[in-house]
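ERR on first pass: missing label on line 2. Operator R.T. fixed the label and resubmitted. Corrected input:
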Amino acid sequence: MGINILAMGSYLPEQTLTNDDFVKFVDTNDEWIRTRTGICERHMAGWEPAWLMGKNAALKAIERAGIDPKDIGLIIVSSVTSDFLTPSMASILQYELGAENAAAFDLNAACSGFVYTLDTARRFLETDSSMKYALVVSAEALSRFTDFEDRGTCILFGDGAAAAVIESSDKLYSSFLASDGSGARKLFARNCHVAPEVKVESDFDDGFPEKPIHKLYQDGREVYKFAVKALPHAFDSAAEKIGLTSSDMDWFIPHQANIRIIETAAKNLHISTDKFIVTVDHHGNTSSASIPLALCEAIEKGDVKRGQKLALIGFGAGLTYGSVIIEY
Ligand code: COA
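pass 2 clean. output:
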């Protein structure tokens, strides 16, 4: 059983930061950022709550789908920047949207979050025939924990949200979800306060001596190496299950982290980059919101059309990765 995306909506905060803006606080320049990442500008939430961005995106998706929020049986929000440890952003959205019959929870699979969320929602729809619609939302305010003194990371990230209303259908569908926890240290940020001097008997958490402990830390080169392998592997693993190959796809919508990662993945999949939806230039890396933001924009522009086969491919902290193949 597959899914039908009834409608999507997105929201981007008004404020943007260009590459030149970063020159004011770190030693960088527009040329370096463009050539190494493909990013030109990104949106910044300021103190706007992530849940509110998610709500704005969800409102558009619900309006476009033309459904009654009371018919939504499930809301899943993916995020690494939840405004609260508890309650979940999904519970806040359930109330704010008047989706009074929906179960609600958040899911954190970092930048693979949308792919994980979509596949999780599909499994709920498949096993509960009384569930009419599911709402999946990705809402991210990466600027909350970006280290604006670290030129290697701060230039990469942006904020935004996107949402999709889905229902079950007999359309083509396949998925593959995975994680390689041995790479967890390569991309992390602390949540609760843990004293840096506390040593734990663990390969993963030995106190993380690197500073600053509540900001995002990334080993860029290692994450890059992981991403260029994970992206084609995630696609191939989902495609094989339904006997498809890369040439059967109309569009690839990968996580938008770096144009060089996308170009290398295209080469490894023997596919022209023209088949890849690219928004990293004007969104930056918005974690789990990047795939639905790119898909929503491509639908609005008329590039992605009904009946086309789409491959959504995510990778990120965890290190998580995965893909979902759908017919739009
Ligand atoms: N401006 C100018 N110079 C910078 C810079 C910046 N913003 N950031 C780093 N540099 C410098 C480094 O200090 C280094 O200088 P050195 O050679 O004097 O030591 C040099 O540029 C090369 O650094 P390096 O880290 O090797 O660059 P890179 O080519 O690997 O590019 C990333 C860095 C972060 C763009 C790249 O590693 C990357 O995209 N990694 C994957 C990140 C990702 O996708 N993360 C999200 C996953 S969900």
